[in-house]
Design goal:
elongated, six-stranded antiparallel β-sheet, 13 helices, Beta-Lactamase
């Protein structure tokens, strides 16, 4: 029962984190598709967020779009995301293989873009009146490849007016890089372009919304206080874990670490796990540890729900620790 409750909380937090990520980057995605390969976006994204972000960026330069991804069978594509496209088109091309007629099958067969500037006159789609009937007058389908050439997916842009739309030419490359980032091995990183002066001048909204402020202060010779401000969740807990590990490994057995979480405005399951991992490392290293936490802090319910209260040495006041009246 406890594991199911914890997993339900984690699932809810992941969904909320993804929504927060997309809300944070949505405006930038509509302004420039190169947001897809910006370091601040790639450092926090996962596959689900990346796929949705590609569609958000595509919808800013087209009337509709479909993102297919390669299935476990490398000769088959399945729609992963779509926006602004008639449901008949979505139904017809939900699954595509090399035998599928039309632009999607052509991209899969050749690995090359298929650019149809006028659906009404193109022989490529002569047998697919559903496209024209649904209001698509131009269709441009781009393969999304990994650096080594493996096909990851196909991004197609649908336009209500015929012709080539120049804004879209800047979309395929960053979309492919974002796909590669969330498809390759975790240790591999895709090269990202250097930020432009305009990007450097732009306020980093992720810093204020999704970063925890973590500082270490030597309170006395034998006491270090690690203070955490902001959210402590699935996005920020890795930074806390790294900071805590670094601090703990500098302490000798018998010294004291106080983790002050009173300024944490949102404590999630991932944050609780990070706290537990930190105190376990303290125990292993022989370091005394305490978590400074007001009794009426609203995050107390999270600790109670996870049965973590008894595993953390919670204290409402650090005075006794700092003055040496308590080991």
């Amino acid at each position: 029962m406890q594991r199911r409750t914890e997993q339900a909380l984690i699932d809810a937090e992941v969904r909320a984190s993804r929504q927060q990520l997309l809300a944070t980057f949505r405006q930038r995605l509509t302004e420039t598709p190169h947001t897809l390969v910006s370091e601040d976006f790639l450092s926090v994204t996962d596959r689900s967020v990346a796929l949705t972000a590609i569609v958000i960026a595509a919808a800013a330069v087209a009337d509709g779009c479909i993102l297919h991804t390669v299935t476990l069978d490398p000769g088959t594509l399945r729609i992963a995301r779509h926006r602004g496209v008639n449901h008949k088109i979505v139904t017809l091309f939900t699954i595509v293989d090399t035998a599928t007629a039309g632009p999607y099958g052509d991209v899969l067969r050749t690995g090359e873009p298929v650019l149809i500037d006028d659906i009404a006159t193109s022989p490529t789609v002569a047998g697919l009146p559903v496209l024209l009937d649904a209001g698509t007058r131009a269709l441009h389908a781009y393969p999304l490849h990994a650096d080594h050439g493996r096909l990851l997916g196909v991004l197609s842009l649908h336009h209500h007016a015929p012709g080539r739309h120049r804004e879209q030419r800047h979309l395929a490359w960053p979309a492919a890089r974002a796909m590669a980032q969330v498809t390759t091995n975790p240790g591999e990183r895709v090269p990202t372009p250097a930020p432009t002066p305009a990007q450097q001048a732009r306020p980093n909204r992720r810093e204020s919304r999704m970063n925890a402020d973590i500082t270490a202060t030597r309170t006395t010779d034998d006491v270090i206080t690690l203070t955490v401000r902001g959210p402590l969740d699935v996005l920020t807990s890795p930074a806390f874990t790294a900071a805590a590990h670094q601090v703990i490994m500098t302490l000798d057995a018998g010294q004291v670490l106080i983790i002050d979480v009173n300024a944490v405005r949102s404590l999630a399951v991932a944050g609780v796990r990070a706290l537990l991992a930190a105190v376990e490392l303290c125990t292993t290293q022989g370091v005394h540890h305490y978590v400074l936490f007001d009794a009426d802090h609203e995050a107390r319910r999270v600790l109670d729900a996870l049965d973590a209260t008894r595993r953390l040495r919670l204290i409402p006041d650090a005075a006794e620790i700092v003055t040496g009246r308590r080991p």
